[in-house]
Design brief:
The structure holds two protein chains of two kinds. Chain A is an alpha+beta fold. Helix content of chain A is 36%, strand content 22%. Chain A has a five-stranded antiparallel β-sheet. A four-stranded antiparallel β-sheet of chain A has the order 11-12-13-14, sandwiched between helices. A three-stranded parallel β-sheet of chain A has the order 1-3-2, with helices on one face. Chain A starts with 6 loop residues before the first strand and ends with a helix. Chain B is α+β, with helices and mostly antiparallel strands. Chain B has a five-stranded mixed β-sheet, with helices on both faces. In chain B, helix 3 packs across helix 6. The chains are: A alpha+beta, B alpha+beta. Chains A and B meet through helix 2 and helix 6 of A and strand 4 of B.
């Protein structure tokens, strides 16, 4: 069906947008790429009174390189990420992950900021940012803060963003050339959301601790201590048992644990094989 | 959230198939409905209306997008090319001929979206493999043909193996 009526705003600056978010606190939703929000509006699963279209805000665009991090503007489209030589050089894991997102036409419009703010547990981008040890830059009319990915995803489609905040960028520690990673997902068809996924991001000088993420299972992507230990010790029988114990905790009542468990265990094998290559 | 809001009217000016267009529309009008109902270009089709079927695919500022996932008002100042424009310009003539020759359409509902999508592929990959064609149309649903004839047609058009009429 068609969206319910809303008041449409198209602020030209971040200041204007933040003023709107503050004024209409809780009754406003941000429209970025629209690839997730427009379906929600069409199905009337979302009925905001105010729609704040941020697509013309230049401050939210661009990919910039710092000495140890890359800052990706919230409005960066998925295909901009895929085409970015900077990201391919310093964050190959992100390039790899975004290649799994949806399809070309969706990637022309969908944004990294939108994906993170929506926090779909089956989506590739939130899980990858968690694996990369990224931090999310959020701004409101009263100021700016950085939220570590570890603290950002706090429930099903729920993040640490306040109602008057806009996600403006994601800041990611660069991975030195040659740092290995593994990104694997299982989906019924290429481009679908993941039914299960595993990301292995071995540590490096910028992010010394190994990070391993499981996504598509449970209300948020989550770090697996079992897989993180296994990055050092190999995927032993003990680490597989530990992973199964973690999965048992994260499977929701309505998830078919019986079919997802072997998928995840197979993905784990393949991910470790990928790391050796 | 409060009760039902009034309809908000907005003005949108853009270029459609090379022609300047200015209309007053409801803010919640999506671009596919705008093109069909406000501009009268019914070649763009509305299938699923939530971005998965590809029937609404158009070219916006040179890139393919799902027109059901954009508000018309978001296309302010943009250049939009629909299937009508691609056809009238002759850009997809070889593709259209190949689609006919290979029976790559039956009901024709998916066809505009398919053509806009593959035209975009051929701009960056003029001589695709079958796998590249399949990948490019993997987000366009067809209920009639089973897809093989569509892939055959694109391959024929791209590699110049179509018999001249």
């Amino acid at each position: 069906m068609k969206p319910a009526p809303f008041n449409y705003h198209r602020p030209g600056s971040l200041t204007e947008a933040l003023a709107l978010m503050g004024e209409h606190r809780g009754a406003a939703r941000v429209l970025a790429g629209g690839q997730s929000l427009m379906p929600l509006l069409a199905m009337r699963l979302a009925r905001p009174d105010q729609l704040v279209d941020i697509n013309r805000i230049d401050e939210l665009k661009g990919i910039t390189e710092g000495p140890s991090t890359v800052t990706i503007g919230a409005l960066t489209r998925y295909n901009d990420i895929l085409r970015s030589p900077l990201i391919k050089a310093s964050l190959t894991l992100l390039t790899d992950a975004v290649a799994h997102v949806a399809h070309h036409a969706i990637r022309n419009r969908g944004t990294i900021g939108g994906s993170l703010a929506l926090a779909d547990p089956s989506a590739e981008t939130p899980a990858t940012c968690l694996a990369l040890g990224a931090s999310i830059v959020a701004r409101s009319a009263s100021g700016e803060r950085e939220i570590a990915a570890d603290d950002f995803f706090d429930g099903l489609m729920s993040t640490a963003l306040d109602e008057d905040e806009i996600l403006v960028a994601v800041r990611v520690p660069k991975r030195p050339a040659g740092t290995r990673h593994a990104f694997l997902e299982f989906a019924r068809r290429k481009g679908d959301f993941a039914q299960a996924g595993i990301i292995l991001a071995p540590g490096h000088v910028g992010v010394p601790k190994h990070r391993a993420v499981v996504f598509g299972i449970g209300p948020t992507p989550w770090r697996s201590a079992a897989l993180e230990s296994a990055i050092n010790e190999g995927l032993t029988a003990a680490s597989k048992a530990a992973l199964k114990a973690e999965l048992a905790v994260h499977f929701q009542e309505d998830e078919a644990a019986a079919y997802k468990l072997p998928i995840v265990m197979t993905l784990a094998q393949r991910a470790f094989a990928r790391l050796q290559q | 959230m409060t009760g039902a809001l009034d309809e908000q009217e907005v003005t949108v000016s853009l270029t459609v198939n090379g022609v300047p267009v200015k209309r007053s529309v409801s803010a919640r009008r999506h671009l596919a409905d705008f093109l069909r109902d406000d501009v009268g270009l019914t070649g763009t089709h509305v299938g699923c209306e939530h971005g998965v079927c590809g029937a609404c695919t158009v070219r916006l500022n040179g890139e393919i997008v799902r027109s059901c996932l954009m508000l018309a008002v978001q296309a302010e100042g943009a250049t939009v090319d629909t299937i009508e424009g691609l056809s009238d310009s002759g850009e997809i003539a070889a593709l259209q001929q190949a689609f006919l020759a290979r029976n790559a359409l039956q009901c024709g509902f998916c066809t505009p979206g398919m053509l806009v999508t593959v035209a975009d592929l051929l701009r960056s990959v003029p001589k695709p493999t079958r796998d590249e064609v399949r990948d490019a149309i993997s987000a366009n649903y067809c209920r009639c043909t089973g897809y093989h004839a569509i892939v055959d047609a694109v391959m024929a058009a791209a590699h110049g193996t179509e018999p001249k009429s």
